[in-house]
Amino acid sequence: MIVQRTIQRGEGDLLKGRFFRNSLILILLISSIPGVIVGFIIYWMGGERLENEMLQLHKNQILQRAANVDDQFSYLENSLAHWAFDPKFNSSLKDVNFYKDFEIARDVTKTLGVMQGSSPLAKQVELFLNGEQPIRFYPEYDVIQSRTVMDGYIEMLSQGKLVFWSDLQADPSKVDVTDLTLVHKLPGVNFEPFGALLVRVDKEKASNLLKTLTPYNVGETFIMQNDGMVLLSSAGTSNSLGFDEVLRNEVMKGGAKSGSFLYDWKNTTYTVSYGTFSRVGTDWIYVSASPINAITKPVVFISKLILSVSCTALLLAFILSWLASRKIYSPIDRLIRLLAANKLFVDSTNEHTDEFKMIEKEWLHLSRESITLQNKLEQQLPHVKEGFLLQLVQGFLYAYSEEDLKKRMRNFDWIVDEQQFLVMHIQLTGFENLEGRFSLGDEGLVTFAAANIIEELASNRLEQASAVNFHDLSIGLLIILPPDQSSTEKLQAFSEELMHTINHILKLQVSIAIGKMTALIAQIPFRYEEAKQALSYRNFENENQLLDLETLEVSEDMYELRYPFVLEREIIQMIRTGQQQEAEQTIVLFLEELLERRAKEIDIQQGMLQLLGSILHAIRHSGMDPSRVYKSANLYEQLTQIREPQKMLNWFNAKVIHPFVRELEARSDVQVKKVVESAMIYLQNEYMNEISLDSCAEHTGMNAVSLSKSFKQVSGKNFIDYLTELRIGKAKELLRDTELKINDVAVQVGYQHSYFNRIFKKQEGVTPSHYREMSRST
Q: Among 277, 293, 309, where does a domain finish?
């Protein structure tokens, strides 16, 4: 019925498309005929070959899984060898009094626990120290009292090998119960050993690992030594043990290191594969036996099933082909409806019944639109480039790193890698003497004409140069030069030509200040500010003048205050955004900038008073009343009483910056607390589900970084710690008050079982099951 309704719903609009009809016919042919042919071929010709391939695949799979088993034991050996050379297990351990140095004992116990947790096959990691009073960590500190246990360790140390595998008793009271144990003597070199590290293999885990060598969950697998002694086995019944004994004799009888054969046992044919593991000091032989009928039985059934399914599929192919064609066609239909604005199939013309012609028509239209937009972008790019350059030279991009500035300049097609940067400040004078050529207010027009002249002259003489039009009879010029190129003569010639050209065309005089060279883009605002202020040294008469800061000789009269406007803008911006520490650091730079020009005390005070006035003006612009922020204190009077630079810095930090930042933070604290409280309620309601900082931030409408910082500020804990404590607290309630299994408790509080055990023990110091026992015993 569903298929019938789908057909009825779709046939009215889809069957009219030429592409849909052609694709439906093609899919019907592809899906029906080959299926029947392939079914007969597989049934009559491929059965036996498939059976052989399955057997070969089984053998290859055994080899791959054997390699995995070998890797597990190799990892155990390599890990123990690594730990044996750890400084924690050097010869100083034999002289340690662990009763007094309990910190060392606890550290050793933790290390053994880490070693045990790092290997999935390890059941127990021990440390034996053969001193005056033999002790062992099992894994905790223990003085050996049993003579039987002591004799076992002494016999182990008497072995001639540094690293070896051995069978050690698991319990002195159970003589027949042994553990397969990897032993590494200490120290890890061929000196007289004073102890040993032991890793006991978990037989249950090792048995499960061996079962991977029987991919079909039936059959037997075991590992034995060269002498035929079985070390590990996956056998679980007496019958299996008998079968293991028969297989062991057959493999030992062959004498080969690896191979495979077929063996009949109790009316069942087994395929047997065996090979060798190279272990430290010895070789192990693994044997895997799987019943062959478990491997090949599905082949016979599948061969017959394929034929019947192919016939059934032929019937379904017609319906599925139509559904598949409709599904394949749906993106094309959607695209056409989107492009044609619901005009598809309105009339019966060929243009509207051929889908790809419609797509082609709309594609050409979009291409034309794209070209038009690209042309507009290219027309606006010079203006965007000029705007960026204007922000750069005025110091508004101070927050960008050097690499970010280079990246942005590369986007504007500047070559900035391994280049030098130089700025020129060009001032036009004599505008009042033009005698009617320009009227008052035409300064912007004159500056625009001069900027075009500068751009043209610079493009002829310099490889990379860009002008900045300030529209106030002043122009900036950024020049990028190779580091190994001498620029002095070239810039002098360019400046002379520039002054001559503007004199001739605009009848204006030109004053040019050539700034100092720099290799950093971030220094460009400071270099431009220096060049701009250097024009204060020019003669006041209207005449052409050229000042080169590289060769400028400064007289005693020139040591006057140069106010650092760029740093002032940075300080005000940092204060507005609450960047208290950055603002304090920049004020230090501001004062150093004043001091380095041999300014007098009155000059320093005037500069700092100017900075204070600018800060108070910015505070008032921020919507705050300086009188309320500073409690009506006369800041100007206080500042004029200070005579020492460091005291002046401390006063600025304590009396100006800190009160404003506190007021700024106080205004935002209430909203922040509401957001954090909303986040806490969300966590308390959703702790059992998968929660992340991003999802919580999305719920509260705040970005993740701000939420994390606010959460720590309000609650005193970071987001993860708060969520972990909340979940562990709920888990403790469930463990105390309910009979839920540990797995169910983990799910109830939003953890997976394995991770829940680790995080619970890390938080509470005990496992969940131990905590439940402790809570109920009290």
A: 293
Look at residues 744, 740, 736, 734 and name the one whose alpha carbon lies nearest to residue 776.
736
Same domain, yes or no: 446 and 542: yes
- Measured from the Cβ of residue 746, the count of other Cβ atoms closer than 10 Å reads 23
Radius of gyration of the chain (CA): 43
Which letter, b or e, does each residue of 256-281 get, where b requires 16 or more Cβ atoms within 10 Å of its Cβ?
Answer: eeeeeeeeebeeeebbbbbbebebbe
Rounded to 5 degrees, what are φ and ψ at 426?
A: -115, 120
Residue that has been written with the tokens 């063996």 in this structure:
263
- Please, which residues have CB within 8 angstroms of residue 382's CB and are 6 or more apart in sequence? none
Amino acid letter at 711? F
Domain of 751 in residue numbering reads as 669-777
Answer yes or no: pTM beyond 0.90.
no
Q: How many domains does the chain have?
A: 3
Domain edge (last residue) among 224, 258, 293: 293
pLDDT in tens, 485-534: 777 888 888 888 888 888 888 888 888 888 888 888 888 888 888 888 77
Residue 79 located in a structural domain: yes
592 three-class SS: helix
For residue 4, how far is the Cα from the chain centroid? 50
Q: Based on the number of CB atoms within 10 Å of its own CB, is 570 exposed (0-12), middle (13-18) or buried (19 or more)? A: buried
Lowest mean pLDDT among 325-339, 477-491, 607-621, 733-747: 325-339
Instruction: Give the H/E segment covering residue 658.
Output: helix 658-686
CATH assignment at residue 702: 1.10.10.60
Query: Is 102 among the domain residues?
Result: yes
Are 391 and 242 found together in one domain? Answer: no
User: Could you give the CA distance from residue 312 to residue 36 in angstroms, rounded to a whole number?
Assistant: 10
Would you call 567 helix, strand, or coil by DSSP?
A: helix
Tell me, what amino acid is at 733?
A: E
Q: What is the CATH number of the domain that holds 138?
A: 3.30.450
Q: Give the residue among 709, 705, 752, 704 at the shortest CA–CA distance from 727.
A: 752
The whole-chain average pLDDT of the chain stands at 77
* CA separation, residue 128 to residues 21, 144, 154, 313, 600 (Å): 81, 9, 10, 69, 77
